[in-house]
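Input structure tokens:
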């Protein structure tokens, strides 16, 4: 049974249910946000990491220690060596390495990487993080994605 089917069953009898493919479709349906409300539908915040170094952003590239992410060139390098990451893994790593560094909640990752709302099913996110961790571990053991149980993930370098 899909996540959508489970949500329909849980919300049955509570009124109208709107199912959208992503947040952009929902925003188009409900109209632009009022100036008093934030433009984003999710209000999740990051939990800052006290000892984290801020990533340097130059010409669209993000650098964090020896990690360099070039979203325009679709390239991620670690100590000058390119990492063979999929588009999804690059997007996930880019979000984790983007300021403010800290814990990225499941909700924020779903919204920024997949462009959709978090509905409680973390299996897609866990699978993507597992594949990313495996590739990062093969490159070097000092670049890690840490789990913050029940909240989300955090990237550490060194």
């Amino acid at each position: 049974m899909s996540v959508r089917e489970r949500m329909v069953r849980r919300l049955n009898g509570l009124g109208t249910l709107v199912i959208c493919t992503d947040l952009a479709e929902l925003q188009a349906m409900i109209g632009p946000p009022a100036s008093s409300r934030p433009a984003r539908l999710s209000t999740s915040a990051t939990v800052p990491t006290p000892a984290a170094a801020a990533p340097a952003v130059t010409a669209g590239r993000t650098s964090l220690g020896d990690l360099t992410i070039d979203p325009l060139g679709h390239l991620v390098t670690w100590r000058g060596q390119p990492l063979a990451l999929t588009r999804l893994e690059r997007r996930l790593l880019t979000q984790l390495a983007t300021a403010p560094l800290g814990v990225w909640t499941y909700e924020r990752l779903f919204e920024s990487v997949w462009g959709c709302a978090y509905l409680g099913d973390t299996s897609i996110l866990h699978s993507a993080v597992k594949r990313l961790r495996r590739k990062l571990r093969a490159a070097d053991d000092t670049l890690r994605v840490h789990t913050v149980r029940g909240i989300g993930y955090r990237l550490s370098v060194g």
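DSSP finds five helices and nine strands in the chain. Residues 34-52 have pLDDT under 50 and may be disordered.
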